[in-house]
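User: I'm putting together notes for a lab meeting next week and I want to include a structural view of one of the chains we've been expressing. I don't have a solved structure, so I'd like a prediction I can at least talk through. The sequence is below, exactly as it appears in our construct file.
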Amino acid sequence: MSRIQKERDRLLATTARTVGLAATATTLLTLSVPGTIPLPLYFASLVLLACMGVAQFQLAALVRLTLWMCVIVVSGVGIILLNLLPGAQLGPSAVTTIGVVGAVGVASVSLLGPTSRRRTAVTILAGVVTLGASVTTLVFTGSRLVEILAFIIAGWVALTATGIWLARTVPRALKRISTMSRAYRVERQASETEARRRQGARLLHDTVLATLTLLAHSGVGVSVGALREQAAEDAALLRQLRLGFTPDPTRSGDYRLKPVEESTLGNTLESVKQRFRRIGLEVNWHGAGQVLLPSDVLDSFLLALGECLENVRRHSGVNEAHVTITDDETTVRAMVTDAGKGFDVASIEEGRLGFTESIVARLRDVGGNARLFSSPGSGTTVVLEVPK
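Assistant: Thanks for the context. Below is the predicted structure for the 388-residue chain, given as structure tokens.
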């Protein structure tokens, strides 16, 4: 069942509960008028009213709707037929009770009729049974027949029409809202992409391209030391961008970086998460919040982690990955897990360098290691380890 159908059913069930409980409360008031029906029949009616009220209250849970509909119908018809028992005198209050129960209390199930064929059948059967029980009671007791039957029929027609109208209108409205939401997300992503493209163009113009222009002109007017220092700053900037940072420019050609020897892992994982969220992969972090790593180890660790997540995005067939970070006295570990289609590890060709070079070799250069676990249909897990 789609989300739109669930929302439609929830609205219809909530409306049916509200209408039904209002009718049940009204019926309780009319039955409680002194002299309406004998005391034994009054207590029997209270039991049936309680059953009907509980069933109506349960409708909004959207569980066993057909069963609760049947309980409402049986309880309502039972209340109507109690007036056929010996000793019952059908006064004005009792006639009102039959009208309210038949036209609203039991008829509230008609709101749920459009949600499925089985409930439609229950609704039709409920209408026939309620009308038959009301006619039988009114005929045998000699009460006004035409007015009460007209009221009951009008109640069924009104509630059935309301249910059909809501069942048809709500999905259309929800589809339009969903379409507008998708259009808004697409427009926002396009705007964000264009803004990042312009920022990237300005960033490269202010830094790397300026340095390359100097080199193209043999660094005329600039010392070798200044060129070397500027190239080092540009390299640091590119490294930050590769790790998912967004440098903040203070003025043209001057961007704030993070030139530290020891970086906090917790501060950089969020940037990786945001980068992959922008391209369609939801990354869920678990485990240690902040772990300190040397700068070169952190770079290799995050780049290898990014390559693992990129493999999930490209090959797993799912749009969600879980990363669990743990550490002990000597080692930091990241376990990247997805519930995708998986693959046979033994089938990886030796010439494929993605995992070997981008992940394993990169970590081994800083004293770390990587292990891969996967099987067809069971997802993939990669364990990354680096020293502190």
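A couple of points you could mention at the meeting. The beta strands are 248-251, 254-256, 262-264, 282-287, 292-294, 320-327, 331-338, 369-374, 380-387. The longest helix spans residues 146-206.

User: Perfect, that's what I needed.
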